[in-house]
Amino acid sequence: MISIQDxxxxxxxxxxxxxxxxxxxxxxxxxxSFGLVGESGSGKSTILRAVAGLIDNWTGAISVDGRPVTRRxxxxxxxxxQMVFQDPFGSLHPKHTIDRILSEPLIVHRIADIENRVRxxxxxxxxxxxxxxxxxxxxxxxxxxxVAIARALILGPRLILLDEPTSALDVSIQAEIxxxxxxxxxxxxxxxxxxxxxxxxxxHMCDRFAVMRQGKVVEVAxxxxxxxxxxxxxxxxxxxxASRGYDRAVIDAFADE
Amino acid sequence: MLSAxxxxxxxxxxxxxxxxxxxxxxxLGWLAFARNPLALLGLLILLLLIVMxxxxxxxxxxxxxxxxxxxxxxxxxxxxxxxxxxxxxxIFSRIVYGARTTLYIVCLVAITAAPVGLIIGATAGYVGGWxxxxxxxxxxxxxxFPKLILALAFAAALGAGLENAVLAIALTAWPPYARIARxxxxxxxxxxxxxxxxxxxxxxxxxxxxxxxxxxxxxLVVRVSLDMAGIILIAAGLGFLGLGVAPPQPEWGSMxxxxxxxxxxxxWICTYPGIAICIVSLGFNLIGDGLRDVLDPRGA
Lengths: 257, 300
Known about the structure:
Oligomer: heterodimer
Protein name (chain B): Peptide/nickel transport system permease protein
Mean pLDDT of chain A: 87
CATH topology of chain A: Rossmann fold
CATH architecture of chain B: Orthogonal Bundle
Number of domains of chain A: 1
CATH topology of chain B: MetI-like fold
Helix content of chain A: 25-40%
Structural class of chain B: mainly alpha
Low-confidence stretches of chain A: none
EC number (chain A): 7.4.2.10
Subcellular location (chain A): Cell inner membrane; Membrane
Largest sheet of chain B: none
Domain ABC transporter (chain A): 2-239
Mean pLDDT of chain B: 87
CATH class of chain B: Mainly Alpha
Subunit structure (chain A): The complex is composed of two ATP-binding proteins (GsiA), two transmembrane proteins (GsiC and GsiD) and a solute-binding protein (GsiB).
């Protein structure tokens, strides 16, 4: 579904350039759910933004559904690829009603039958029609993230980029949102590329995942590897230990490069 | 004031239509505005001005354009409430008719300068690059001159007359709006909801008008309503210098100007139009303050 070859993203002026992503290559099959894990600043979200066309100072090759993507994305690209952002408080326009937020993609793509599609999208994310004419500030964080998911789904994309979709939410809401995302994938067979710093989330959501550090992929592993603890790279093992909770002995044993 | 059912409909947190959601939002804004007594006073002044302008022929007791020479320079009395000027015209009637001129100038300047500033500023902020450089340097060039001096220069170049005065004021009023719109645009353009808007596949025009401008409008509305007082003063200043409205037409600034020769003996000729200018400017300032409390995006 998506293939990334030697993707490199640099920020800043020539002199003090930061290489956020350093020669990353990935392949994700259609219908698969692929995770990107790593600490803050490891470049995982930057990969998503490069794929989404939100940053354009990247080099390398990205192809989606067998077609290479260019720096400027056309409208057809956005019917194929959509994104859910990390912070549901920042990703919904504060002056638009939920109705407007969900109608906007349909209007841009000149899709008829807006009325029924908006209602169906709200049902799909288990928000009733009574939320339709509210403003984002009248919704809770979990409800807002449901709206953001509905917006990503409404054009019927085949690939959804999930940028830490639950890390801004309460623990109890996180599980609901993750289950909703799993259900949606089962029903529609959509491909997920999920970014998270939480191995628990990745274990729950993804068949395979890549561990990233300082802009590079250090290891690609499967859910099975995670369950048996058979990760090969030292950093991945550290991440796994860290995800099991705080333990002084474990922390002391960490090597900081 | 409102029936309970109407209130519930407006304040419902589950509106059933676009229209209800919008009306509810307006009503909440109004409730916040109405909590400020000074803002209500400002609104009252504005409403009085509007009523005066609309019903001028019924309110004014005398002809504002022609007076009888035997009534020259009469002090305030029962017949002439605020006295008469040196041509025997009733000052009260002229103030009432002058409300039309004032309102006309203020409205025209607001509906021309504000959108121009908004479009220029938002475009500069969103597009960036050389477009931003060109637009903002142009704005800076206009900002470099004192407003009144620039308006004077334009009015002198265009010739006297109401329309030219409006044009001259509008030409000097837009640059601050462009600055505000650009600043607001810069603060929202890298937000996730703008990224989401780009990911719908929307073109730059749609993002600019549908997503960015709604975020600029509140601070612009506040600034415009605070500027109204300044616009009235500049219009009065142009009138005072004879660059505003053509002579027989009543305009508060030129009325003050006409009375300045007799300011010590017949003080009422310039005092009352001056008070009118003062009250209306104050009213707009109070409204602006109230609107800022309601609309300020950082306060909410």
